[in-house]
Amino acid sequence: MRKNQILIGFCAGALLWLAGCGSSPHAPTEKYYLVATNIKIPYWQSANAGLMHAAQVMGVKVEMDGPDSFDPRAEHEAFQRILAEKIKPAGIMVSVADPSVMQPDIDAAIGQGIPVITVDSDAPASKRLTFVGTDNYKAGLMGAELAVKQLQGKGDVVIYTMPEQSNLKDRLRGYHDGFEAHPGIKIIGTIDIKGDPRIAFDRTQDMVDKKTIDKVNGFICLEAIACPEIADVLDRNKITGKIIVAMDTDQRTLDWIKKDRIAGTIAQKPFTMGFIGVTGLDTLHHYPPTPLDKPWATDPQSPVATFIDTGEVLVDKSNVDTFVSETTQKSQ
């Protein structure tokens, strides 16, 4: 047991990136899953690339599953399908669209002896073992700093989000705290896009049609798909002088940054999340902490890291070309 704890602490903590760290030879049936929503968008395709790269390096099977739209119930159904597989999953990572929906699933899997970690979006009250992803509060602070600079400390902004997601709640909290020292900046509206870019487009166009857009100085997106739609609406209507702060690095977002329509975006590392997720699950599968369902997050001698920060970076006009060039080179 002591040996297992050392291995888990070593691999799942400081050196989780080391593929196959401490693991025994892989069984032919060993398979790891990633469950998410909106899995066709570039963000999750990047995560899947990390997933596949880890599988190639380690010699294991992997699969990403989940709905093409933002549908928490469909994500629940995908998770349940995986649990019902004849061959038990070696481990599952899940990006939690709605903690109230997914927590029972996560706890059920843990109860069956299947290691579960969360990536990108967490369910901290569940029995998941580790969260791998961005420090979303810090990402919100980073976005707020850019917005304050662009607005010169004064202006009314509208937030585009999906309120039920815990990662977006943390980003919003970061924005609120970042704006606290700048009372001239006010959040005058919050739009739930429900994971649908058409809602972002239509709601922004509606502001244009009703001329309420004149009262808005800035637009802030807490997720990946809204800001390219906002920039498109403003560009079509030849509206200038509005600040847009985006999230993630959808190609359209990067293109609008180059065109000076989006001031900047907070880039996450979904590839890293996918890669680290598999290597971490592999260690937890071969050297599971005992008992698996213990609340390890509150244990001062836990062998499992509660949170693994994959990092974030601001991409704006000053570094967007370099960012695109490096991303292109690594994907070739």
Structure description:
The protein has 332 residues and is of the alpha/beta class. The protein has two domains: 2-134 and 269-311, Response regulator (Rossmann fold, 3-Layer(aba) Sandwich), CATH 3.40.50; 136-267, Rossmann fold. Helices cover 44% and strands 17% of the residues. The chain has eleven helices and twelve strands. The chain has helices at residues 2-12, 42-58, 72-83, 99-111, 136-151, 166-180, 197-210, 226-236, 251-258, 270-286, 320-331, and strands spanning 31-35, 61-65, 91-94, 116-119, 131-133, 155-161, 185-192, 218-221, 243-247, 264-267, 307-309, 313-316. A six-stranded parallel β-sheet has the order 2-1-3-4-5-11, with helices on both faces. It has a six-stranded mixed β-sheet with strand order 7-6-8-9-10-12, sandwiched between helices. Strand 3, helix 4 (99-111) and strand 4 form a beta-alpha-beta unit. Helix 2 (42-58) crosses helix 10 (270-286). The longest helix is centred in the N-terminal third of the chain and has 17 residues, at 42-58. The relative contact order is 0.17. Mean pLDDT is 91; it is low at 1-20.
Helicity, as a percent range: 40-55%
pLDDT < 50 stretches: 1-20
Q: Which structural category do the helix and sheet elements fall into?
A: alpha/beta
Number of strands: 12
Adjacency order of strands in the biggest sheet: 2-1-3-4-5-11
Order of helices and strands: HEHEHEHEEHEHEHEHEHEHEEH
Largest beta-sheet details = 6 strands, parallel
Question: What sort of overall outline do the alpha carbons produce when their principal axes are compared?
Answer: elongated
N/C terminus separation: 43 Å
Question: Counting H and I runs of at least 4 residues, what is the number of helices?
Answer: 11
- CATH homologous superfamily identity of the largest domain: Response regulator
